[in-house]
Specification:
Helix 8 (about 200-205) links the parallel strand 5 (about 190-195) and strand 6. This protein folds into 3 domains: about 15-80, Winged helix-like DNA-binding domain superfamily/Winged helix DNA-binding domain (Arc Repressor Mutant, subunit A); about 100-115 and about 355-460, Aspartate Aminotransferase, domain 1 (Alpha-Beta Complex); about 115-355, 3-Layer(aba) Sandwich (Aspartate Aminotransferase, domain 2), CATH 3.40.640.10. The protein is of the alpha/beta class and about 475 residues long. It has helices at about 15-30, 40-50, 50-65, 115-125, 130-135, 145-155, 175-185, 200-205, 225-235, 255-270, 325-335, 340-350, 355-375, 405-415, 445-460; strands spanning about 70, 75-80, 100, 165-170, 190-195, 210-215, 215-220, 220, 240, 270-275, 295-300, 315, 380-385, 395, 415, 420, 435-440. It is globular and about 70 Å long. Helix 1 (about 15-30) crosses helix 3, helix 2 crosses helix 3 (about 50-65) and helix 7 crosses helix 11. The chain is about 40% helix and about 15% strand.
């Protein structure tokens, strides 16, 4: 936590706005790095000689302006300008002097950018197609039949058998999560997930006023006894999990663990939302958890992390009995439909094998980048993950003496962005001394090596002395 104490002299106006203005200036000047945890309301009130209520209003004003993000029980953190709460910073700029982006978990771009070439070819073919006019018309909220058939075929790549009527075409995985929560939960419901989880689900849980409870993790993923205990303590509505290449730790749940979690969920009537964003990256992987609880599992067949984020298409698969009507209704209420043009592109890629070829190229590029990361970082305290040869985020355990948020701030001062463990925590208190390092965002391997080398320098130099900001 920073010892930030702004100088309020010669400032006029309501005190809470003056504090928020000072925070904005210090962030813009680089005196408050993104990811920095601010003093508690009481601590800052005592330093400034104001009431706790004034600081509370100041932090609320700062959050309204997009300067900070607050998490109940954990504190208030400085945000990057103009960046969504669950994303650390913008796309890597690419020039030598700029910040190297290792915080955004984007898929690596193989040499020659095959996704761009595939898109150009598909758009040219679509331009000559007699069906083009159909793609400019309204479609069913769940998606055109041909696009839902492609979704079922894509889900089969993950090992999930589904019929087209179970599939809803969404505008990416994040949208699929939002659709599922809107359709399956109500305010006050309990959502359980890994104790460290994808930040986007936390943002959505706050929007839908859900109670989030983190479940203990071990080297095999969620501990089944933790799910059992949560269910016994009170009704649990939904389990959100990433059993394959968990974000951020990279863990792959084994088949036995998946069966055990499915049995606990079945016994207590818990719905499961399985996010398989990275499911096709491992060469060997267990069947989806959803196959062990087919009557109550909703499956997100990822695309953005496997092909390219810009398509903004994802497939949400409902249980056979539930079909997709309630999910489709939520899509229709929010946006009428998911854009048919991009859905058509992806359908063509699934049908003609382009999607599979892109995944193979991504695996190869990612393996090469992981080798570079191991060479530069030397496996420094890292939980690199079993069977993680194609995973493009690393969970880096920090040496003794480091705290996650301090490492993030110091790394940023050295020109590289990574994500603090605190970003992924579901419970109160600071997260473990670890950071997530993403090796896919830099456009080139040379750019990646530059960022990793800066991280290596930070690790070697150790924590900088803490100094007050006045």
């Amino acid at each position: 936590m920073t010892s930030w104490s702004p100088d309020l002299r010669e400032r006029t106006g309501p005190l809470y706005r003056v504090i928020a203005d000072a925070l904005a200036e210090d962030r813009a000047a680089g005196r408050l790095a993104p990811g920095t945890r601010l003093p508690t309301h009481r601590e800052l009130a005592e330093r400034l000689g104001v009431t706790v209520g004034t600081v509370t209003r100041a932090y609320a004003e700062a959050e309204k302006r997009g300067l900070v993000r607050g998490e109940v029980g954990r504190g208030t953190y400085v945000r990057d300008a103009g960046v969504p709460a669950h994303m650390p910073s913008p796309v890597d700029a690419g020039d030598e002097a700029s910040l190297v982006e290792l915080g955004v978990n984007a898929p690596a771009t193989p040499e020659g950018d095959p996704a761009s070439h595939a898109l150009r070819k598909s758009l040219e073919e679509m331009g000559r197609s007699p069906r083009l006019a159909e793609l400019l018309a309204y479609q069913p909220a769940a998606g055109a039949l041909a696009h839902r058939e492609a979704g079922a075929a894509w889900a089969a790549r993950f090992g999930l058998v589904a019929r087209p009527e179970q599939v809803v075409v969404c505008a990416g995985g994040q949208h699929a999560m939002e659709v599922a929560l809107a359709a399956l939960t109500k305010p006050g419901d309990t959502l359980v997930t890994e104790a460290l989880t994808y930040p986007g689900i936390k943002v959505l849980a706050r929007r839908f006023q859900l109670r989030v409870q983190g479940l203990a993790l071990d080297a095999g993923g969620i501990v089944p006894e933790a799910l059992e205990a949560a269910c016994r303590a009170g009704p649990v509505r939904l389990l959100y999990t990433q059993p394959t290449y968990h974000n951020p730790t990279g863990v792959v749940q084994g088949e036995e663990r998946r069966r055990a979690l499915a049995e606990v969920a079945r016994r207590h009537g818990v719905l499961v939302l399985e996010d398989d964003s990275y499911g096709l990256l491992p060469a060997m992987r267990p069947p989806p958890l959803s196959t062990f609880l087919p009557e109550a599992s909703y499956f997100i067949a990822g695309v953005s992390k496997l092909l390219t984020p810009g398509l903004r298409i994802g497939y949400l698969v409902a249980p056979a009995r539930a079909r997709g009507e309630r999910l489709a209704e939520e899509v229709g209420l929010a946006s009428l439909m998911t854009t048919p043009l991009m859905a058509e592109v992806l359908s063509r890629w699934v049908e003609d094998g382009t999607a599979d070829a892109l995944v193979v190229r991504l695996r190869s590029e990612t393996a090469a980048r992981r080798a570079l990361a191991c060479r530069v970082l030397g496996g420094e305290g890292g939980c690199w993950g079993d069977n993680a040869e194609a995973l493009y985020h690393l969970w880096l355990a920090l040496p003794e003496g480091w705290r996650s948020e301090e490492f993030v701030a110091q790394a940023r001062r050295h020109g590289v962005s990574v994500s603090s463990a605190d970003l992924f925590c579901t419970g109160p208190g600071p997260g473990p001394a670890a950071v997530r390092v993403c090796i896919g965002a830099p456009r080139t391997r040379a750019r990646l090596v530059r960022g990793l080398s800066r991280l290596r320098e930070v690790l070697d130099s150790g924590p900088e002395p803490r100094a007050a900001i006045v």
